[in-house]
Every structure is written in C-alpha cells, then in structure tokens.
Design brief:
Strand content: under 5%
Helix content: 55-70%
Low-confidence stretches: none
Number of helices: 4
Structural class: mainly alpha
Number of strands: 2
Number of domains: 1
Distance between the termini: 61 Å
C-alpha cells in the first residue's frame, strides 16, 4: 500500500511539473475581436468622453479605428463576470434561506437548531449584500478607468 501511495504522489508531482511546460509550448491565438454581450452604446457619458462601442451582439474588431474596442471589451467582460457572480451568490442565498427556514421549522424548541437557523438566515442576508456589491463593481471600474 505504501508503494502505491508513493507512486501516486510521484506521478502527481510529475504531472504538476510537466503540465505547465506543455501549456507554455502552445502558440497563443491572436485576438482580433470580441463579441459584445452588453449594450454599452446607450450610455451618453461614454460618447461624451470619446468611447464608441459596438452594439449588443455585434463583433468589436480591434483594427477598427472608429471604435474604442479595448475599453469596451474590458467593460463588457467586467459586466459579464459580475452578472455571473450575482447569479451564483443569489442562488446560494436562496439555498441558505431555505435551509435556515427548515432548521427553524424543525427545531422543536431546541435552542441550538433555532440559533443555527437564525444564523443561516443572517448569513444569507450578508450574502445578498455581497451580491448587490457585485452589481456595483462595474460602476467602480468605470470610475477608476475614467469612462
């Protein structure tokens, strides 16, 4: 058993050392465009500062001199990531609220289960605040970038 465990550890260490070398040997693709998933063209403050983005669903091509695709693609990525964070955290919040409510309903007077259920609902409320903060991140990034 010791030999098998030692062999597994050595193979794992070898894989950890070899995989980055294999990945770095690949030629990275040249990125020439990005697909816009959010409509950033409706914001008047962008146009006032000289930022012109492609419409929602269109490709923003980096060689196009009439559009500022670098900033637009960065902001589109920030919006997409924060949307996914928001959905994930809200899903976890709903699960925690249901779990906390279940613990409260099945407590049968047990102070430990009542405290556990109450704490889970409080943690879910804090999680909802974090989810709302995730929706504020794009506006913070916009103010930092001066967009």
């Amino acid at each position: 058993m010791k030999k098998v465990l030692t062999a597994l550890v050595l193979v794992s260490l070898l894989a950890i050392l070899v995989v980055p070398l294999v990945a770095s040997a690949q030629v990275p693709p040249e990125i020439t465009k990005c697909k816009m998933r959010h409509d950033l063209t409706t914001d008047a403050s962008w146009a006032n500062r000289g930022f012109i983005c492609a419409a929602n669903g269109a490709d923003c091509i980096f060689s196009d001199t009439t559009k500022t695709c670098g900033v637009c693609c960065l902001m589109d990525t920030v919006y997409t990531v924060t949307d996914w964070i928001f959905v994930g955290v809200v899903t976890i919040v709903i699960i925690f609220i249901l779990w906390g409510a279940f613990n409260l309903l099945t407590a049968a007077g047990s102070p430990e289960k009542i405290k556990l259920g109450r704490d889970q609902i409080i943690y879910a409320s804090i999680g909802m605040l974090v989810a709302l903060l995730a929706k504020a991140i794009p506006y913070i990034v916009r103010s930092v970038l001066g967009v």
